[in-house]
Amino acid sequence: MGLPLNSPPHTAxxxxxxxxxxxxxxxxxxxxxxxxxxxxFKTQNQIRQSNVPAxxxxxxxxxxxxxxxxxxxxERTIGSLQQNISDLENSAPSQNKQFQVxxxxxxxxxxxxxxxxxxxxxxxxxxxxxxxxxxxxxxAVQMITIVHDVDINQFVNExxxxxxxxxxxxxxxxxxNSAIRCAGPTVYIxxxxxxxxYVIQAIGDAKTLDTALRLPDxxxxxxxxxxxxxxxxxxxxxxIIPAYAGATQPRYAQPVETNARSGADNKN
Length: 268
What we know:
Blueprint: H1 15-49, H2 52-91, H3 93-112, E1 118-127, H4 139-144, H5 149-161, E2 166-169, E3 172-173, E4 180-183, E5 186-189, E6 192-194, E7 198-203, H6 206-213, H7 219-226, E8 231-241, H8 260-267
Antiparallel strand pairs: 1-7, 1-8, 2-3, 2-7, 4-5, 5-6
C-alpha cells in the first residue's frame, strides 16, 4: 500500500534547534538556581537578625558604650571641678595663709591659757595625809602629818619652775587666776572643795620634773622625812589634763590699746 499523496513528509530535528532548546533550559535552570540562592541568603540574614542572643549582645554593647561615655564625661566634670578648686585656692593664697596664722595663734593662746584639754608625757605626784599619829606631840608637829595648801603650792611651784607646760590638781586645771587655799580643814582649788589624796598631774619632760621635785630640802624631801607614804612620784608616757572650767570673762581688766595715740594718752 502506498503512502497518501496529501500527507506531510516526516523530517528529523536539526542540530541548531537542539542547541537552542538546551541553551534555553540551561538559562532557566540558572535563573531558578540564582533565585533560590538569593532566597536562601535572605532567609539566613533574617534568621541572624531575629536571633535573641545576638540581639542581646548588640544591646549590651550599646549600653556599655553609653555607660563608658557617661563615665568619661563624669571624669571630665570631676577634673574640671578640681581645677576650679585649685584655681580658687591659688587666687587667694595670702588670705588662706593669714587665716591659718590667726588660727594657729588662737590655738596656742587657748592652750597657754588652759582653755583646751591637753595630753603629753609628764609626772603624777600623789599627796596624802599621814596615818601616823602623835597625840602627845605639840600641835605644830601634829599638823605636819596633814597635807595643807602650802604643801600643794610648793609642789606646783617647783613643777612650774622646772618647765611644766600644763598642771592640774584633782582634775582642776591650774591657770593664771587659779587659787589653792585652805578654808578651815578643807583645801579649795579653783574655789572647789577637795579632799585627799591630792593628785597633781604635770605635762613636761618627766626626767626634768622628777629631778626638780627631788632637790635636797625641797618639798618632796621634807615630806619624805616626815612619812614616806605621804608622797609618791610616778612617770607617765601620756597624761590627759582637762581644760579650765571656771569663768573666763574678766569683769574689770580691759586690754590696753596699742596704737600711737593710746600710748601718748597713757604717758600723760
